[in-house]
Every structure is written in structure tokens, then in C-alpha cells.
Design brief:
Its EC number is 3.1.3.3. With 399 residues, this protein is of the alpha/beta class. The protein has helices spanning 21-29, 62-76, 108-120, 148-162, 194-202, 205-217, 222-231, 239-247, 254-263, 276-286, 314-328, 345-350, 361-366, 379-382, 387-397, and strands spanning 6-16, 35-44, 47-57, 79-86, 97-103, 124-132, 137-144, 165-170, 180-183, 267-275, 290-299, 302-308, 335-339, 353-357, 369-371. Strands 12-11-10-9-13-14-15 form a 7-stranded mixed sheet, with helices on both faces. The two termini are 52 Å apart. The relative contact order is 0.11.
Length: 399
């Protein structure tokens, strides 16, 4: 294009989706001296909406382009809308963010509230797409022109009011770059708490459960509470550990999540305030890359009520995340931490993205985002991985 004034033509085709629509339109436009400025396409329930913005030199015979585009629409039995404007060479506003909304169900009022908050922060929604409709509905928006921290705070308040989950993340290709996922185990990767399952075998479940609850809320020092609970297991036959391993139930969607991430070349780690005698089995079963946990002391086939080695506590989890990142060659900014209790706070805050999963209030407030639906694989959507991608990958592997 020369230095002459530029104008734009926006062509919008709407109608039944079928192969070849996009190709047919661009083949027609190729016969004219146009420059493609922007393209957006979405398919909703088999209905295609295709928008193409082209620019041209003022004075060009745009009527021929207009007529050609209308012929394409008529041939395809689609509706067409055309509008011209002056190309002011405006740039998309800075501050690109991904806003992910999870709901089960997701109601119009929630979307209205989220969109209203985005607008109130002076931001613009550039693109909207669906990542999943089952078991939860997940909608992702590309947003520009907002301060991330201010928008995150505003949307967190709206999410609580609308009873949906909302995540705000920086935009860019890094979302789909190689990442390290570091996850808590008890009440996150698995259902329940291992130490309580052991306590049930030892006949001291009520005592241990009270201490566990206080520690998860952050009311008690984790290391002290752990040693106190483990002491109650003294004298328990070590065979109870085998029984507990057999009783473990993964969180809903856990196996799908780990399998999908591994298939996409993510590194996966677990870090637990529980015990290696249990987490090692999870590592083998799920193909987990890295793990860290405490180790129960066992003598003569009996649990002594003590722990050997350093304790994996709140600070220890964050240290483990940093160590795993170094070993995996992944920058901290590319790490994702997932947890539910106060013992996970340092890890969640150290990671590039901290996710509170069905967590205590203190954890939800401190994390970057929260997921409150009982499906661990919904975290995939926060990473930009759609339900269709998961199903396609499973089909390729014969799952």
C-alpha cells in the first residue's frame, strides 16, 4: 500500500457451518488489491459467524469487492453484512489478559455480571470462546486494556456473588508453553487425608481429625501438628499402610488431568505433607515426574509415631516447587501450584499461577484463582486446554 488514505471493509458471513466457507471467501478476495487486517471466526451449535476486516486505498473500486462478497454469500446460502470505515491505524489496547469463567450451571446473570465488571474497569472483550460444556461450562475471554490486579479483585467479588469461578491470567503464548504443575495430594489429588485413614485403623480418628482441621485452617503450626498426629499412630502395624493404599480414591478427573498434561509434554509433580509410603505408589500409578513427602519411621514392622528426615511443611512445599522447576528446566513463571490448605500457601504464592482447589477461605483469598467444582480436570481449562482437545487426545490413545 502507498501513502494514500486507507479505508476498511468489514465482511461478516453468518449461516450453517460447512467445509470450505473461509476458503471460498478468501479465494474471492484474492482477486482484489486488499490487505487483511483482522479475522475472527466462531461456530456455535453448527452456525458459523465469520468476520473479515480488509483495508484498501481510498478511491479503489470497492463496489466490485462488495458485489463479489455478496455473490459468495448467495452461493453459500448465508447472510452477509458489509460496512465500510476509515482505517485510523488504531492498535489493540495493551494489557492482554485471559479471563476464564467456570460454572455448573453457568447462567446468563453470571455472564452479565462478569462482562459488566470488565467494562467497569475500562477494559474491552476482544474475543469469547467456549472451552467446555461438560461437566462444567467454561467460557474464555480475551480482554485488553485492564490492570490485572484490579480486574482480578473485581471479578473475584463478582464470582462470589454469582457462585461461579473466574480466573484472570496474563495473555500470550506462554500459556501453552512447557509448564510444570505441582500439586498437593491430600484432599486435592486424592479424596480425604491419608493420616486420617491411618488414624481410623489405629482407633484415634476423632483426635487426629480435629488437629488436621485446625492445621488446614492455619490455626496451628503444621510441623507441630503433624508430629502430634503421627505420635498418635505409635504401635500401629505397618501393614495398615498397605490397607490405606488400597482404600485411596483419586479426586474426580484426576487421572484425566494427569494423563492429558503428560500427553502434552507438561512436567507433573506432587508435594505432600503426607507420607512417601503412600505417595510413591501414586507416582508409579500415574507416571508422575517429581515428588516430595514426609516419611513415617517404621521399626520391626510397626509405626513408631515419629517421622524420619526433614518435614515437608508450608515452607518445604515452596522449596520443593523451586527444586522441581530447576530440575525440569522450567522458569518459576511457568509453574502452576494447586492446593487446598494453609500448608500450601507459600507454594501457591511462589508459583507463576496459584490455584486454590476446593480450598479453605484463607487459601482462596491468597491464591491467584480458585476452583470450587468437584472435578480436578477443570483446571485444564484454566491452562487453555479445551474439552474437545482432551477427548481428541484420548481417542488417539484409544482411551
Amino acid at each position: 500500500m502507498d501513502g494514500s488514505a486507507q479505508r476498511t471493509l468489514l465482511i461478516t458471513l453468518t449461516g450453517r457451518d460447512r467445509p470450505g466457507v473461509t476458503s471460498r471467501l478468501f479465494t474471492t478476495l484474492a482477486d482484489f488489491p486488499l490487505t487483511v487486517a483482522d479475522v475472527e471466526q466462531v461456530v456455535i451449535r453448527g452456525r458459523l459467524i465469520l468476520g473479515v476486516l480488509v483495508s484498501y486505498t481510498e478511491g479503489a473500486d470497492i463496489g466490485r469487492v462488495w458485489n463479489a462478497a455478496e455473490r459468495v454469500a448467495n452461493d453459500l446460502d448465508m447472510e452477509i453484512e458489509l460496512s465500510t470505515g476509515r482505517d485510523k491505524r488504531t492498535r489493540r489496547r495493551s494489557g492482554r489478559l485471559h479471563v476464564t469463567v467456570l460454572g455448573a450451571p453457568l447462567k446468563p446473570a453470571a455472564m452479565a455480571g462478569i462482562a459488566g465488571r470488565i467494562s467497569a474497569h475500562g477494559a474491552n472483550i476482544d474475543r469469547i470462546g467456549r472451552l467446555s460444556h461438560n461437566p462444567v461450562t467454561c467460557i474464555e475471554m480475551n480482554v485488553s486494556g485492564a490492570d490485572p490486579d484490579a480486574l482480578r479483585a473485581g471479578l473475584a467479588a463478582e464470582a462470589a456473588e454469582q457462585q461461579v469461578d473466574v480466573a484472570v491470567q496474563q495473555g500470550g503464548l506462554h500459556r501453552r508453553a512447557k509448564r510444570l504443575i505441582v500439586m498437593d495430594v491430600d484432599s486435592t489429588l486424592i479424596q480425604g487425608e491419608v493420616i486420617e485413614l491411618l488414624a481410623e485403623h489405629a482407633g484415634c480418628l476423632d483426635e487426629v481429625a480435629k488437629v488436621t482441621e485446625a492445621a488446614m485452617r492455619g490455626d496451628l503450626d503444621f510441623e507441630g501438628s503433624l508430629r502430634e498426629r503421627v505420635a498418635l499412630l505409635a504401635g500401629l502395624d505397618a501393614s495398615a499402610i498397605d490397607d490405606v493404599r488400597g482404600e485411596l480414591q483419586l479426586a474426580a478427573g484426576a487421572r484425566t488431568m494427569v494423563r492429558t498434561l503428560k500427553r502434552l509434554d507438561y512436567e507433573f509433580a506432587i508435594v505432600s505433607g503426607g507420607f512417601t509410603q503412600v505417595t510413591d505408589a501414586l507416582v508409579d500409578d500415574l507416571g508422575i515426574d517429581y515428588s516430595a513427602a514426609n516419611t513415617l519411621e517404621i521399626e520391626n514392622g510397626t509405626i513408631t509415631g515419629r517421622i524420619t528426615g526433614p518435614v515437608i511443611d508450608r515452607a518445604g512445599k515452596a522449596t520443593a516447587l523451586e527444586r522441581f522447576a530447576r530440575e525440569a528446566g522450567v522458569p518459576i513463571s511457568q509453574t502452576v501450584a494447586i492446593g487446598d490448605g494453609a500448608n500450601d500457601l507459600d507454594m501457591l504464592q511462589a508459583a507463576g499461577l496459584g490455584i486454590a482447589y476446593n480450598a479453605k477461605p484463607v487459601v482462596r483469598q491468597a491464591a491467584d484463582t480458585a476452583v470450587n467444582v468437584p472435578y480436578l480436570d477443570t483446571i485444564l481449562f484454566l491452562l487453555g486446554i479445551s474439552h474437545e482437545e482432551v477427548e481428541a487426545a484420548d481417542a488417539q490413545d484409544g482411551c
